[in-house]
Structures are given as structure tokens and as C-alpha cells.
Amino acid sequence: MRAPAAADASAIARVHVATWRATYGHLIAESFFDDDALRRRETMWREILVGQDSARRLVVAEVDGTIVGFAHAGSPLGAHPVRGLQLYTLYVLPAHHGSGVGQALLDAVLGDEAAELWVARDNPRALGFYRRNGFGPDGATADDEETGLAGLRLVR
């Protein structure tokens, strides 16, 4: 587990796009996984990493020198937050599911602090993972503007 550098933007983007394809490939358009999507994610992550705010928590997990997952948390985004900390993203390549990488990433950015996060309703693996970590739905729902996926807010 380590803090990422700006040079990690491409590797993080590759994990981001690959995990979306594996998880949501049957639910959202191919345009979320194509070369243009990868370039957009690289740009997004480069901007995040260059402008890294010290109040945000961002870590990557590596196996044999290759980034296989990442997590990002900070002050809540959007309207009506219910906790002072939000998990924005936590993605682990499918080949590393069940290895403890996801748990280590979550622990690194949240510890045991109270937090909120949004998760796709059609992501049973993530829902189970967050339930095991003390999160539960608080009744808030929203459709993701970018993907159209139905989301649930979870809190602990």
C-alpha cells in the first residue's frame, strides 16, 4: 500500500476501466471501456494526482510492482452528506478479489471511521463487502448521471 504519484495515472486508469468492464460490462455501454474512455480516465487521474488535496486520502495496492487496486476518500461530495467522510472509489482487479487487497485499501483510507459511500444497486459483490465492513443503506438512492446505474448510499 502506498500513496500514488502523478506517474501512476495511467496504471490507475487501466485498473479503473478494467474493473468497470468486469463489473458493469453487461449493464452499461461499451463507450465506458474503449480507448477514449481510458484516455479520459488517464486525464482525470492525472489531474487528481497533480492537484492532490492533503485532506483527501488516496492509496494504491501493488502486487509484484503492478498496481492492482486503488481507493480514494475525502470530504463528502454532492448534496446532503450524512457523514464527514466519503469513500469515492475502491476498485480491485478481479484476479485479486478475495486476496485481502480490497480490505487493505478500505482500511488504509477509512480505518474504522464513520463514512458514507455510493454503490451500484446491481453490484452484489460490493454490497456484501461493504456490509461485512459495517455499512448499510440509509434509504438514499440516486441514478448515476454518467452511467444511468441505480445507486444506493451506504453509511456506517
Concise overview:
This protein is globular.
Topology, please?
Layout (H helix, E strand, L loop, with lengths): L8 H16 L10 H16 L6 E7 L2 E9 L11 E7 L8 H10 L5 E5 L3 H9 L3 E8 L6 E6 L1
Parallel strand pairs: 3-4
Antiparallel strand pairs: 1-2, 2-3, 4-6, 5-6
Helix pairs in contact: 1-2
Structure, described:
The protein is 33% helix and 27% strand. With 156 residues, the chain is α+β, with helices and mostly antiparallel strands. It has a domain at 6-112: Gcn5-related N-acetyltransferase (GNAT) (Aminopeptidase), CATH 3.40.630. It has a six-stranded mixed sheet, sandwiched between helices. Residues 1-156 form the N-acetyltransferase domain. InterPro entries: Acyl_CoA_acyltransferase, Bact_Acetyltransf, GNAT_dom. This is N-acetyltransferase domain-containing protein.
Radius of gyration: 15 Å
The CATH superfamily name of the domain at 6-112 is: Gcn5-related N-acetyltransferase (GNAT)
CATH topology of the domain at 6-112: Aminopeptidase
Low-pLDDT ranges: none
Distance between the termini: 24 Å
Relevant terms:
single chain; 156 residues; alpha+beta; Aminopeptidase; six-stranded mixed beta sheet; 4 helices; globular
